[in-house]
């Protein structure tokens, strides 16, 4: 029997990462941050001097890069290790995010990451967040959530997040970046950002994390 999966898809800054971590922690399930995998391909490419046009080499990186996700403290972000280096913070930069969105448009890169993502599905269950978790990677998931929020609200959240991490940020730049990332993610030919037909859509623009968590867990209970 395969382990149950809850998928949480949505645009950047919708809060899906935070919610996914909270749900996984609450249920004591595994967590997959699939966006981190695309960010890691982008970072690995830059480390190895692989061009973002070189689809074949990018696929080889996607399949073979040495990645570890370490949960030492469930309250803290998962530690991400790429080829022995701690890159938890490095993969969160705007540059890496933009490059991740570029490599994510390449079918071979997506195919190269598929097995890695399926490997996260282990007992007692998995919470997976990303763009295509409910549509492509885990189409048979027990519960699918599509979490969204207005561009303005998402830019505000990113701004606060970056400030808290002591990184510099500019609100107008963030808005523009979010908008262009949305367009890139929604309009690509493979695995575009769309809610699965059977996903519950939650608009978190006027909700805090606890409210989103409660609504999601209500859906989970109704599903049994
Ligand atoms: O969610 P995050 O901002 O970390 O994702 C970085 C980029 O990776 C996204 O802009 C998107 O292009 C890509 N991505 C994807 N499919 C996923 C997760 C992320 O295409 N399942």
UniProtKB/TrEMBL annotation:
Pfam families: Cytidylate_kin (PF02224). GO terms for cellular component: cytosol. CDD domains: CMPK. The keyword ATP-binding applies. Keywords: ATP-binding, Cytoplasm, Kinase, Nucleotide-binding, Transferase. Residues 6-221 form the Cytidylate kinase domain. It is found in: Cytoplasm. It catalyses: dCMP + ATP = dCDP + ADP; CMP + ATP = CDP + ADP. GO terms for molecular function: ATP binding; CMP kinase activity; dCMP kinase activity. ATP binds at residues 10-18. Belongs to the cytidylate kinase family. Type 1 subfamily. PANTHER family: CYTIDYLATE KINASE, CYTIDYLATE KINASE/PANTOATE-BETA-ALANINE LIGASE. HAMAP family: Cytidyl_kinase_type1. This is Cytidylate kinase. It comes from Ketobacter alkanivorans. The gene is cmk.
